[in-house]
Amino acid sequence: MEFFKVAGLYRRDIAANIEGFTMAALLLFGKDEVIMGAIPHYKVDALLRIKDLDRYDDRENIKCNLIDAYDHLMAFVAKHLPDKFYLQGDTRISLRENFFREIIANMLVHREYTNAYSGEDNIEFEEKDVFVTQVPLGNIFDDKKTDGVINDVKDDGEIDISTVPVAVPATISVQNLLKILNGEMGRSELQNKLNLSNKAYFLNDYLQPAIEQGFVAMKFPQNPNHPKQRYYLTKKAA
Hints:
Radius of gyration: 21 Å
Shape: elongated
Strand order of the largest sheet: 7-8-9-10
Mean pLDDT: 76
Number of helices: 8
Low-confidence stretches: 127-168
Helix content: 25-40%
Structural class: alpha+beta
């Protein structure tokens, strides 16, 4: 249980004053039927498009927890992409696995699961000398939506990616909160800015994770329920 608490997967609901597992815990470790009962729209749709970009050449509709979804997506990639022979010193390494384990993990972790429509992440390939591709990173990183270009695979196996911004908080909800938080603001003011009417949802999915990750601080940290409580961005969020 300590693991779940430290990881933020089990915590107290401030509004309801109860403790329990979070949605993140459900998505990571939950059974398929429990996940679908709580998040009916949840799925990961893997599409391969080669000839006609308005159709697909292969598809896998994945509805399972994120750990199993990661394995399914890695298998989908292995099914369709070659893995050229490459040596790191005197040891063969898989460039395909090294690259896609980062891409797939980021796509799964940074997705907004409370929204039935979370957009589309595309990966396009153009075969060059070793392994070169243009990657539209979408919401994986910050709101600049910069395209990351893999320029080279170095001798030590490290993939050189240019123009990729520094990663930001783990959820789109927290990112959206940081964008509208200006100076010191109260809870109701923040909710109105985000067009959110559900107090519990705002606290559990936006405000509390932002505080726990160190991006937002309270004016009265010793008294979270202070009637004049205000919130502001920390130096980490700047």
